[in-house]
Amino acid sequence: MTQKSYNILLVDDDEVVLQALEVHLADLPHTVISTHSPAKAIGVLGCGDIAVLICDLNMPGIDGNTVLAEARKRNPDIVSIILTGGADQAVMIDAINRGGIWKFIMKPWKRDDLVTSVIEAVERYARLCEPRAQLKEIAEKLSELSQKEEQLQHTTGRQPKRIKKKKAIRLRVVEKEDRPDLQSDRYELQEVLGEGQAGIVYKAQDTLLNMPVAIKVLSPSLSRKEFWEQSLKDEARIAMQLSHRHIVRLHNLQRSGDRMFLVMEHVEGHSFREVIVEYGAFPIDGLPPIAQVFGDAISYAHRHGVIHGDLKPENILLTGDGVLKIIDFGIASLTNAKHSTGLIAGTPAYMSPEQKRGELLDTRTDIYSLGIIIYELLTSRNPFPEDMSTDEVLNSMPGPLVGLPHPVTVVLEKAIAADRDDRWRSAGEFTDALVAVVSSLSHGGINP
């Protein structure tokens, strides 16, 4: 079997370093592109699919951090290696805070160490691309379906049920007289993307940066409480530091008169709710790469001290190019139950028992929610019956998990255990176990 060839981009203003890198990587079955110009490197990133970026940090004119940021914008899956001979401490800190760096290699390097790192980087890129390719196919099919339905609506004048349901709240144009006064000329509110007990989310235009953003205007009951405001500020500082390819970024928390609002990255895409509705039960053998994305993103946030608190299919987006994005990470947690004893916030069918009781939350509440989501993705049904009322859901545990191979059921049951001490210790441990049993089933290693 012929090994696939990937593109590797080398960027260093020192020609001697570039030549040494080229010689050391010459035997690999990949295309190596090198340049001493950061500006040319950005041009290459815009023209080709680069799998691995090896980049110096300290370069004249455009520094390495700018190249790294452009690389992630062009290809969220790119694996970046920083080559440094002892960069300025401030530059290093900036690079770490921006995220997206897989490994640092110090100059001078050992040839074998460099080659091993590049081989591992290519393998990592290939793994990251697996779910993206699969999800991109799903996203394309959903887009085709939407186009067909909109054509049908245009031809017949009738709105298909799916579009009607989807647009009941989403993409509702905001009339000028209905727009909340943010006391700022910077943001122009355009459409309502969603509504909930914590506030209303709008698509908006950032007129200063000329780019779309999402703005969540918090409800007056949250904005006017001094205790909540301080909690919001404290957690926003943490949430704003999250920088992950599969997490929608929080840009800012601002006050406008007696209202507070959050400015977030805007992402166009389909929710996992749409995926479940349109595709029904997701094939179990296609789960591992998606589970790995979930585990990676959620574990990353948890390591940074951020709990989601409202994971559900509606908060997971699939972009047109197949990138999975979790929205409201670090935002739902700003307004969840852990800030006030006895207050319940979340979506009942995905809430952990401790969240329903209004108790202090920890990372295991997200593991519970993820277990429910994955079960629903694989079976196209929630373990709580559709005809069950909100009060009934809040006062009961989910029904039996049926319709899946026993080893998979065992892993999911541990994720949604009533006692959080009985659940998986981390999101990564949960998704690793899930990937292991599904892979064993696929290879005939476990009797279902």
For CATH, the homologous superfamily of the largest domain is named as Transferase(Phosphotransferase) domain 1
Count of the separate structural domains: 4
Mean pLDDT: 83
The coarse silhouette is globular
CATH class of the largest domain: Mainly Alpha
Series of secondary-structure elements, N-terminal to C-terminal: EHEHEHEHEHHEEEEHHEEEHHEEHHHHH
Helix content class:
40-55%
- Give the beta-strand count: 14
Instruction: Tell me the CATH architecture of the largest domain.
Output: Orthogonal Bundle
Question: CATH topology of the largest domain, what is it called?
Answer: Transferase(Phosphotransferase), domain 1
Determine the strand fraction and express it as a percent band: 15-25%
What's the main sheet like? 6 strands, antiparallel
Radius of gyration: 23 Å
Low-confidence stretches: 163-172, 336-344
- Which structural class fits the helix and strand makeup? alpha/beta
Number of helices: 15
**What is the terminal separation in angstroms?**
31 Å
